[in-house]
Amino acid sequence: MKPIALGAALASACLLAACGKAEDPSSAKGPPATPGSTAATAPSGTGTPPGSGARSSSTTASTTAPTAPTAPAAPTSTAPGAPGGPATMGAAADGQKVYAATCVACHGAGIAGAPKIGDKADWEPRVAQGKDTLYQHALQGFQGKKGVMPPKGGNTALPDPEVKAAVDYMVSQAR
What we know:
The protein has about 180 residues and is mainly alpha-helical. About 60% of the residues lie in helices and about 0% in strands. Strand 1 and strand 2 (about 150) form a beta hairpin.
């Protein structure tokens, strides 16, 4: 009974840690917008007819800030060639981001019986059950012989496609 209580306590700690980290990726996803990237390309020209050079510099500085978060969006366009992703474009990159923000808390160290990323022996029996089963366990939660998987890794605000992308990413690392 004590190992189960210890596992539950560790899972709870992971959930709390994962929930706190999940806010960063969602805020990083909000600012990237096409107008921000368009504004970043417009100030790159040396001449700005309306306004003085000093005002153009401050405008450039303010438009440069939104373009910084768009830099992580660039690898998303290269992700379609990645194997094993769900139907959405850039799923591998998104899966890696979700893993880094939420899943690494348990799957990075094998806490609460979570299979460690890259551990082929630990992932093999899970992968053999099929991706639909892995998706179901990740989305709805699961109490297995070896450990506990909280629904959506404890971050219930994660959309289902992002959870599936994280599963795909972790499975791809175990091959």
